[in-house]
Amino acid sequence: MTLDSYLKKQTEKINRALEGCLPPARERPAKLHEAMREAVLSGGKRVRPILTLAACEAAGGKEEAALPAACAIELIHNYSLVHDDLPAMDDDDTRRGRAACHVKFGEETAILAGDALLTLAFNVLCRGDSSSRPNAGRILRTIHLISEAIGTRGMVGGQAVDLEFQKKEMDLPTAEYINTRKSGALIAVSARVGALVAGAAKKEEEALYRYGKFLGLLFQIVDDILDCQGYAKVIGVSESKKEALLLSQRAKKEIKIFGKKGTTLNQLADFVLNRKA
Amino acid sequence: MTLDSYLKKQTEKINRALEGCLPPARERPAKLHEAMREAVLSGGKRVRPILTLAACEAAGGKEEAALPAACAIELIHNYSLVHDDLPAMDDDDTRRGRAACHVKFGEETAILAGDALLTLAFNVLCRGDSSSRPNAGRILRTIHLISEAIGTRGMVGGQAVDLEFQKKEMDLPTAEYINTRKSGALIAVSARVGALVAGAAKKEEEALYRYGKFLGLLFQIVDDILDCQGYAKVIGVSESKKEALLLSQRAKKEIKIFGKKGTTLNQLADFVLNRKA
Question: Most exposed among A117, A154, A211, B65, judged by the fewest C-beta atoms under 10 Å?
Fold first, then answer.
């Protein structure tokens, strides 16, 4: 299978699962449910959940075991977009070519929709049918790792410092702080969690975590190169491109231990390196 | 011990535990951490966590086993206050006699502080030292129940419908919808979770859940009577007072099965009925 058709297949699988997680739009409070559904189901590359599924497979697990965690991570990613777009935050009116949540549904609904998506993510993490479900201890560790990755020492911390420096000159340590946290932390944990729910050995889990960290940094640097922002602004585009290539190589090196089973993860690293949008 | 000194002792215990959960103000991102700390540590009656500890004790558990869940519930309560006070929501400038979070720290920090407190709550739920910690299955069920109680079918749903009806005439089914959800759902689950982490039998857990539901309704009705809002506006103050008395009696009836161990829960029902602020 080519990477393109693999990504298409996985995206459809994840979209079906997300559709099943979200509350129906006709149920009260209807507007809030509609806002949540539109925020999650109106597109998106699904990089993070695809990564979780791929990491689970590389570690010898079944995809179904990773599906609740993959959905939870995508719900979290979408909550962060809804809140980041708010007027008091990045003040973006559009998202994925459509009106942002707060523009279409109002600011109060966007705040609540983000809150509800984050809450739903933790709800979904507790689910899974008993046949494919990892044991309770592993699920608990998954919840713990995800909550670390998206708290003030992770994603939310990155966003806070990013907002703080939007009107200030950014120094390299700050750019690195934001890079490892704002989107990096959730991407890194996406890979690690795939290993965890697969029941992987510690060594494999740690290799996938390092792979995820490099991939997260890579993702952010490519973002910065495409937007000419953050890191690329501080060290320049040409240096950033060198750094990106290096990160993709380091990511790939980490998954050598999976041999042929790591092929998809290898291709995903190239995909992130070469993406144009 | 009188109820007053019991409440004082429990409040201090919970405040110490919350202090230990929150990230230090000097750590980056400092402003965000400061906002979180001030939102949580600047007062509050701690009704919910006190209820969790009391329910745990009534069900024969050790307080330490319930402390992480009690803290998580109080963090969630405070996240909801920070977001509810935002200009786009209830637009309140003061909270507990001080400047609201968004007034003191700015709207963007208040949004992120709420997000971070909610995230921290789930993080704290995974903690607890191994000696007092309930087994992983029980913790997972606790996380699941809490996430149900504060999602769109619970607290966030109640807030969404409340906002929707602030400019409309409220009918009785809507008042009841809001009453059971906006603050009721979190209070109800506070009691249930105490039983759960105590390792209580199903029958006891269910009795405490019903007790918590009556207490949650009671809490909201007393709120409405004090503010002359919501339910009290629809059915009148005098009818509301009758309803409140009835609810406190029904709550107390549920905990008869605990005999003398239910004394504190009994006193808490009277406390909620008779509170003046």
Answer: B65
DSSP tag of A199: T
Q: What is the ipTM of this complex?
A: 0.96
* Tens-level pLDDT at each residue, chain A (277 residues): 899 999 999 999 999 999 999 999 999 999 999 999 999 999 999 999 999 999 999 999 999 999 999 999 999 999 999 999 999 999 999 999 999 999 999 999 999 999 999 999 999 999 866 677 888 999 999 999 999 999 999 999 999 999 999 888 888 889 889 889 988 999 999 999 999 999 999 999 999 999 999 999 999 899 889 988 777 788 888 999 999 999 999 999 999 999 999 999 999 999 999 988 7
Q: Any CB–CB contact under 8 A between A137 and chain B?
A: yes
How many Cα atoms within 13 Å fall on the side-chain side of residue B155?
A: 29
- Overall fold of domain A3-274: Farnesyl Diphosphate Synthase (1.10.600)
- Cβ separation B160–A123 shorter than 8 A: no
Domain ranges of chain A: 3-274
Task: From chain B, pick out residues whose CB is under 8 angstroms from the CB of A115.
Answer: 79, 83, 114-115, 118, 156
* Minimum Cα–Cα distance from B83: chain A residue: A111
d(CA B54, CA B212): 11
The alpha-carbon gap from A27 to the nearest alpha carbon of chain B, in Å, equals: 9
